[in-house]
Amino acid sequence: MRFALMTKDKPGALQTRMDNRAAHLDYVAETGVVEVAGPFLDDDGQMCGSLIVLEVPDMAAAEAWAANDPYAKAGLFEEVTLRAWKKVVG
Asked: What are phi and psi of 87, to 5 degrees?
């Protein structure tokens, strides 16, 4: 089952994102459940959030993945939304 994880970074948290980026990307690679992902950009082209599509068995697995993301553990996010998602195109 697919889940869309959408996050918004805390204001002024770009350095937190950069400090934890390598660990986040390692986590994505190691877990093997991310189908597609990338950062949201602000008006200046700076990263300010994320969209991550997970392929996991259920919401509990999606929640666990999100909670263990190094970005989440670093306190990067102001908002987090996790919703079941159905792929139709692409």
From this structure: -80, 130
Matching residue, tokens 């992902």 = 37
Does the predicted model carry a pTM greater than 0.85?
yes
What's the distance, Cα to Cα, between the start and end of the chain in Å?
A: 16
**pLDDT tens digits for 22-46?**
999 999 999 999 999 999 999 999 9
Which residue, among 29, 28, 30, has the nearest Cα to 5 in the 3D structure? Answer: 28
Beta-carbon contacts of 57 under 8 Å, excluding residues fewer than 6 positions away, are 1
13 three-class SS: coil
Distances (CA, A) of 89 to 6, 21, 37, 68, 86: 19, 29, 16, 29, 9
Look up residue 33 and give its two tokens: 């459940």
